[in-house]
Every structure is written in C-alpha cells, then in structure tokens.
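Appendix B. Extra example for self-study. Work through it before the problem class; the solution is given directly after the inputs so you can check yourself.
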Amino acid sequence: MDYKKKPLPPVVGKAGFGLLGIGLVLMILAFAVNTQRAFFDYLWMYMFLVSIGVGSLALVALEYLVGATWSTPFRRISEFLASIIPVLAILVIPLFFGMHDLFHWTHPETLQNDPLLQSKASYLNVNFFIVRVAIIFVIWLAFYFLFIRNSQKQDVTKDPALTRQSIKLSAIFAILFIVTISVTAIDWMMSLEYHWYSTMFGVYYFAGTLYVSFAVAAFFAVKLNENGYLSERLSNNHYYSFGAFMFAFNIFWAYIAFSQYMLIWYADIPEETFWIIMRMKGSWAYFSIGLVFVHFIIPFLILLPRSSKVRPGLLTKMAVWFVLAHFYDLYWLIMPTYFKDGFVFGWSELGFMMFAIGLIITVFRIRAAKTNLVPVGDPKLESGLNFHLN
Amino acid sequence: MSFDSTYTRELPLVEAKKSFKEIDEVIALPTETKPTKGWWIAFSISSTALLIGAFCLSLTFYYGIGMWGNNNPVGWAFDIINFVFWIGIGHAGTLISAILFLFRQKWRTGIARFAEAMTIFAVMTAGIFPIIHTGRPWLAGYLLPLPNQNGVWVNFSSPLLWDVFAVSTYFTISFLFWGIGLIPDLATLRDRTTSKIKKTIYSVLSLGWTNSNRNWSNYERAYLILAGISTPLVLSVHTIVSFDFAVSVLPGWHTTIFPPYFVAGAIFSGFGMVSTVLILVRKVFNMEHIITIGHLEKMNKILLATGMMVGYAYGMEFFIAWYSGNTFEQFVFINRAFGPYAWAYWTMVSCNVIFPQLFWFKKIRRSIPITMVLVILVNVGMWFERFVIIVTSLHRDFLPSSWAMYYPTLVDLGLLLGSFGFFFTFLLLFLKTLTLVSISEIKAVVEGAQPTIHPHPGGNGQHHD
Amino acid sequence: MVSIMIKKLINFVKEYDSKDDREPRSKKLFGLAALYNTPNEIITAAADVAGKGYEKFDVYTPYPMHGMDDAMGMKSSKVGYVSFALGLTGMCLALLMIWWMSSVNYQNIIGGKPFFSLPPAIPITFEGTVLLTGIATVFGMLILFNQLPKINSPLNDTDFMKRVSSDKFGVVIKADDEKFSDSEVRKLFLSGGAFEIQEIYYRETNLGIKTPIFDGKFISIIFATAILTAIITYITLNIVLYDVVPFDWMWKQAKINSQSKSDFFPNKAGMREPVNGTVARGFLPYEYKGMPDSSVKLLSNPLAVSRKVLERGQERFNIYCSPCHGYFGEGDGRMKDQFPKPPSLHNQKVLNWSDGNIYHVITNGQNVMPSYAEQVSVDDRWAIIHYIRTLQRSKNASDEDLTKAK
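Solution. Structure tokens for the complete assembly:
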C-alpha cells in the first residue's frame, strides 16, 4: 500500500466556506423577502442533500453487500459524503416551521372540506409526519455511525471481522434504506400534491439518489486521484467503472421516469394526469422537455462511447452535470406546487443551491482533514487496487 | 486461513483444480456418451407431459378456446398467466449471461450457457400462449406489420403489439447470444470427435472457427456489445409485458410501479427455475466441481434480494391503494387478500416473500435439500403471482353485476402441464447434444489460465503488478 | 426381412461414419505452426513474432487471452462501429415505420389518442434499435470481421487445430508473409520454447483444384429438394388443409343462416320475422298512400337548396326518372318507343303543382307510373323535386332572369 496522507489544498476549504457563506446570506434574505418561496427552495435544497447524504451511505452499504472490490479504494469518499446525514438532522428542523407554507394538507380548513384527504388523514397528519421523520433519522444516524465506526476502526486494527460485520449491517440497511427513502419521497414530495399518487414515486427518487451520489463520489475520486491524493495504482480501469456506473444509473433513472410518465399518459386518468398537466403549463412545458435532455439524453450520448468513460477530465465535468441535473429533477418534482404558472429561477434559488454545494464541500473537507482518504485497513483494498477490467 | 481466501473474490471458480483436458472431458462427456437410464426416465416423463399438452392443444384448435375456463369477465386466464410466467423464467438466463457479465462476475461462467439455453426454451414456451390465445394461430403472421390485401396495419399503440416486437427481438438476440457462445465450443467438439457425421455437423455449426486471436478479439468485443444491449433488452421485455396490464385503467393493473416490479419478479422466478434444474443437472452429470455449491449460494442471495424487491412492490401497491382514497382501488386489494381467491394471494406472499427469508442463514443457503424446496416454492409462488394479478383484477371490477368466478378446465391444466413438458423436453435434448457449460469461458477463468506478463511487440514483458 | 434391412442400414451408417474424411492436401505450404505449453510462453512468443516484423501471423488459443491483442500489436476491434451504425438505422426505421403506418397510411383513432405520439412509439423503437444492433454485431463480427463461415480453412482438420482447441497454444506464420523463411521461423519458434513445429499445407479446394459446390450430383439434389418442397407445400396448403377444421377459414360455422331451414322453430324457417308493426329505419309509412293528389297540399320540401342537394337530385333523377321522363323532363326518355310516353314536366299542370304533389306522385305513383318509394329514399325524393324545379326554371326562363344572372 503506497498511500500517504496529505492535507487537502486550502482552496477547497475557501471555496466551501465561500459558497456556504454567500448561500447562507442569500437564504436569510430569501426568507425575509418571501417566506413561502424560501421554504419551497429550502425543501428543494434539503431533498438534494438527502440524496447525497443517504445515497452515499447506501453506496457504502452496496459495496459491502455485493463484495465489490474496485470501489474499495474510494469508499472513504462516500463515507465522507454520508457525513451530511448528521447535518441533515439539524437542517430538517426549520422545515417543521414551514409545514403550513409547504403542505396544503396541514390546513384544518382543507381537511374539513376534502373527503379524500380525510380518508388518508391517519397517515397525513402533522404528528405522525414528525414521528416518521424522527424514526427515519434515528435509522439513518444509527447506521451512519456504525458504518463509519467500523471503517475507521479498521484503519488501525486491520481486523477483517469488522468487514464481515459491516456486510451484515449492509444487508439490513439495504432494506431499511429502500423503505425510508420511499417514505421520505412520499412524505416530503408526493404529499405536496396530496391528491396525487404513484406507486413508482419512491423508486423514482431512489433512482435519483443513486444517480447523484455516485456522480459526486466520482467527482471527488477522480479529482483527488488526478492530483495524487489517493494511489498511483488507481487507473483507467477504475475510471471506466465510474463512467460505466454513471451511465448505468442514468439509464436506470430514465427507465423509471419513462415508465412512470408513459403509464400515466396512456391511462389518462384525471386523478393522475393533473400532476403531469401542472408540469406542462406555461413555461413548465419547456422545463419538462428540458428535463429529458438535461437529465438523460445529453449525458447518455456523451457517456456512450467506451473512450469517454475513461477520460478523467470528462468524467469530472459529467459529474458536475449530474449534480445540476439532479437539482433540475428535484426542482421539477417540488416547485410546480409553488410556481403554478411557469418556472422561476432567481437569486433565492441560486442561494440555496450554493449553500448545498458549499455544505457538501465543507463537510467533505472537515472529514478529510482527520481521516485517511483510503481505507488502509480494509482486506479488500489490495484486490481493489489491483482491479483490472479484463 | 486469511480473510481474503474466505472472502468472495479469491475462491477458485473451478474446484479441485482441473487441467484443460479434464475440463474438455467433463463437459463434453454428456454429448459423447449414450443417454443414461435417468435421462431416459426424465425424457419419457417430459415427453409424456408434452404429449398431454399437444392433445389439449388439438382439442383447443378443433373446438376453439371455449375449451378453456376463460369466461366473461375473466378473458385472460391460464394462457396469459403461463405466458408471463415463462417469459419471466427466461429472464434469469439473460441476467446471468449479460448483466453479470457486465458486472464482471466471473462465477457466472459455470451456469451462463445453461441459463441462456433455458432462456431460449422458456421464451419459446411463452410464445406459444398468446398465439394460441388468438384462437387461429396459423394466422399469426398478421401480428407483424406485413403489407396485406386489406390495406390495414397493426395497432402501434397497443402494448400487445409491443409484446410481439419485444418477445421476438428478445428471442432473436438471446438466440444469437447463445449461438455465438456455442461457436468455440462446437469447434472444440469438432476437434474431439472421431465420428464423420458428427464432425460434419459440428464443422458446419462452428462455421469453421479456428480459435485465432484475431477472431477472438472481434468476438470478445461483439460479446461485450451483445451483453450491453441485452441488459436493457431484458428489462424492456418484462417492462412491456407489465405494460399489457398497466396501461389499462383497471384497478390492480394500472399502477406505475409495475415495470420494475415485473422485472424483479421475472428475475426472481427465473433464478428459482435455474436453481431447480441446476441442482439436478450438476448431480446427474457429475459437474459438482464446475457448478459448485458457491454458485448455488450466490443464486440464493440473488433470490433473497429480488424476493424482497417483489415484497416491496406488494407493500407499496397495498399502501398506495389505501393512500389514493380510490374505493375501487382499495376494493381490489381487499378482495385479493380476503376475497374468494385469498388462498392464491397468501400462497403468493408466503412463497415469494416469507419463505425466501430463510436464505438469510448461511447454513440454509448452502444446504442443497432446503434450497431445492425453497426454489420450487419460488416457482409456485411466482406462478400464483400472475394468477393473482390477472384473475383477481378481472373477476371483480367496477360493475358488480358482471362479477364472476374463474375455474380452470382440464384442458387448461393439460396445457400448463404441456408447457412444462415442452420446456423440459427441449432442455433434456440440449443437455445431451450441446455443452451445458461454456468450455472456452470456463477455461479462461481457471487458475493459471491467464498470462502474468503483458509484453508488447519488440518490448520486454512487463510483470503484472 | 425388415430387421435385416435395418441392420444393413445401421452398418452402412456406421461404416460411413468411421471413414477417414480428411481431405488430401496439396504440396503448397500454408504456413508453419508452433505449439506452446503455457500462457506466458505464448504471449511472449506472440510479442516476439510481432516484434520481428511479421505481419501475416496469428495466435491460436482455446480461450480468449487477456493482453494478447497488445502483445500482437493489434488495434482495438472495430465491431462497435457496425453495431452503432445499424443500431441507429434500426431506431430511425422503426420510428419511420410507426409514424408512416399509423399516421399516414392507415389512420385509426385509438383511445382518443393522436395518430402518432412519442410515448407509445418508444417501446417498439427501442426493440427495433436493439434488434438491428444485435444482428449487426453478430453477423458483422462473423462475416465482415472474421470472414466466417469458412469450414475448409487449411488449419481445420489438422493436429495443430486439435491441440489449440483443447489445451495448447499455437502460433502460425503464413508462408506468404514477406519475411517468411523456413529456417528463420523455426529458429524463432524454438527460441521461444515451442515444443512442436508443424507444417501446414493448403487443401486442394483452397487452391481451386476441386470445387465440390459445382458438382453435378450436389446441384441436382438441391434442385430436386426445391421442387419436392414446393409440391408438398402446395398440396398441404391447397388440397389437404383446404376444407379441414380448424384450418377452413371459418367457412363452417355453427349458426343458422336467414335463408336456411331450421327444425328448431315451429315454422321451420331459419329467419325470424319482426314483431308486428315493426318499422324499419328510414321506411316510415306514407300517410297519403293511395289517396288522390288533392289531399297532400300540406307537404312541403324540408331540404334547403344547396349545390350538394341539387347534385344529388340530379344524380337520382338521371338514374330513376330520366329513362321515361328524359334528362330534361320533356317526356322523351330512352324508353319512349317501348313504353307509354309520360307528359312533359314543363306543362302548366306540373308547373302549378306544389312540391307536395310531386312528392306524392313519386311516392304513390300515378297512372302507369309505379311507386318509387322502394328505390328512392325520402331525402332523395325531395332532392329530386328541387332538381325538377331547377329544370322547370331553366326551361321556362324569362329575359329578366338573364339580366338578374348578370
């Protein structure tokens, strides 16, 4: 193992803090100017951070579960990104104060006049909602701490038993992850339009979380490795895997998105189509068509050739693209409830985006300062470094 | 024993290190010897089942599909259940041969060929049912957009037509995939045999393959591309099968999770069937060293995972049915779980979700008899899943005055039996005529099969790091 | 008797099966082949051969060996380009087919959806793309890139091939390589650790000495098979299966035709009679039937005059009325010498008639003229009346009309 720990250049910290600071100022301004819009933006940013944080934890679990070795040298990156989870537990609190602004179903007068809402009131009520969020956070935090503890302990002890334990944890987490992420998607995003329902919705959000958290991991991994922070033995073979999986997750998202849209379009039942029609009103129509290109077609065509999956420069650019595409996707899911006539993108939205990106960089930097960037004690590391395509 | 060697990676894929010659012999043996008694017994059972099916089919042709239990409102029953069931069985083969290939899971080599053959036979079996359901299968040419004297074209908005395209494409691509995999093996058989007739056949079928590296290079690239396109193809096939139901407005059919749910179910049932047959085959043909217990354990893990995906879909459907507030939607699910077909529903849930939970235990995953029981239950459960989806949604829908019960007739049951006979007859013939494990692929993953140096023309060999 | 014949047949097959079928080889050298034992030896040998500048050589291994392409100095395979090109073609063809068939050539409204829209076209487009990509990949790889099938390659049927398709690794340098020299090549092989060197000669068929495909017997067998197949197919489809259930195109059906006899009904007729008083659509009874035309003054023409109505009236008039009344209503029809001549429609009596009177005559008949109610529908009768009025107007036009028309 040729890994030597080096501190990250100060520019990373500055960039992170800078974005975080500007974002925070803009956020506060946004709340002062238009509270409801700010809450919607906040929800948008929150869901994005959930995608990154919980998605990264799921990637860590996935690696243990399927016994992948090529990704072992990069596992720390996903672990660092998963550290957003404890921050999320704080970030979620302001949202509870915006429930009235965000969710129409919380209004007592709506409940009184809406028999459909009454029929699901035992699920959609503020108390149970908060209880669910709390339980979900307990699960995420518990697994986050268990995975991180095992992984970091292994750096010192090099004890393979810890890997075995993590594999077992992963199996349990895999199930809980699917359930919690579905509930999160339904609660925070589907219930914005509480009449609308789609059994695919949880899977749709799940596809997005993998899409973006993998891209962010790829971004950090390629950037760090190109600048010599990881190992000289990581090569095109590893990059190819990043490219191929980004490509695969992109197709998976497109598959899920198309299936959901096609079935609603074809059956043409008013209780379902109104959700799509909202996204076809005014300038939203262009936004929706843009989603297909931004999220799927353009990255698909760029990543299709074998050669583009191994070019580090292109990979990092595509990773950034994927991040923006996921913002785009979540905006499409959340904002039509607020901007009913057409989409609006102003300084307020930009501020929340900057805050989210700044937060990711900052959390990563803080975690990277103390911990090895490569899991040096992992028994799979050696074969991960030796990984060859053929 | 170090951790590495007990961990997934470093286990030898072929147990009890065998030489290349021994691998040739073990794999080619079934094709070079007369069938054993056991094979004949199996063959007579399956061909009897096939004949029963053929008899029921001729009854259907002569008297029409009124011989079946289908009625109004249950217009789709055993025929479509069997179609979806067999198409699903096929999916495991493509999953093993294509998706696991892309994920570079080398353990697939031991079972890929066999699973691909199963795919082909399962798709053939599946294809029979929608065609006989039309009542006049000899006019099936009109399913394709062929110019005709009436000047009409097929309905491109119909998911049933998409099925025609999906299933025929799936069959073609699976057949090509299987076929090019067989070419090098047929060349090996050609060079082993002493019989002139066999040699002529193998020579023609192997297209004169010479094992040349210039050919291998193109061959490997083609294989990769085929794997790359087969992966979305296999997803699309069961997705389109799910569209048959989900584009309708029928409660219990129209639900957006159907596509991935059907795909997961297909893989689940396919692995169930592959395991069922493989457990017998490895024993009968003495291939325990090539198709190891490790393979079975990995397949059991996949069964556990896909079983839970199916379970997720069951749960999500139920929850959203309630959440939607739509009384028709709610009724269908209550009717499934507590109505006249509740026994089918609970068979499905227990076989697909509850029993596979036993695979959490390593002991059970590695125990052949328990695995055998569980995978057969998976087959049963997945057949009942299609029964539940199709029959319970149709038999009671919006209009209570047109509710009815569905009961299969003897002809229905005979056709179901016949489909198993058809599938297993082909499978047994395959086992005796072609190599059931890919010789060239298994050789490539034997220890010491790959060079440890990577020289370039004119340069010295550099050592592998 | 039969058993002896079967035994003879079996013996014949066995004898044929065990014959040595190795084709005689010519004296012309195809190349020199060397066999090696281990993967490392062969990959080094391949790099050596390529490094020495040989171009027409190839390596033979029982399975694809990693790194061999680099060792031989080969470029990466180009199969992907063919796949991509045909995949794109498949996608375009499928989309074009769906668009043309469903929205141009055969428009059919289904579920109130547009004739062509993207979401339901995607599944088939996808399948078309995959189908053509797959076919292009396999056949492109086999035929374009590997020049297969070719079962009479000089290498096939040699001991060398038997070894490299099982457990050994081989190199062949072809004799037509520019640098080929027997002794040099042997030296190179031995220095790399080859344990056996073989000379491979061309087959006679390779050199064009023998061409079995033009053999008279072979051609006539193919010919005979083709004719036989055609005859059998014709007989099966057109004679044997022609009238057999269920292949009879549903000619025989378990139903009663309206004209057939039936023992089931008391009156033994297959056709059922309508209930008394049933009125068929468009056949309302005529209320003035058999009455004199004086009683029908109240009837008036319900149709507004329009070009379409007049054209319809003209058409009907020319079909049903003109044979007797003539094309212009002057009573000089084509039947004039075989049938009593009707009076002109331009006489004062008819000019003074109301529309109702003419309608009554068409419906009821008058003198020798029978009723035309069965042949001409109610609307058509009124259209004819409009046309008759037009005729009357044109035949009795005044000068004023001309100035008006200007």
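Self-check: Residues 254 and 292 of chain A are 8 Å apart (CA to CA). If your reasoning did not lead you there, revisit section 3.
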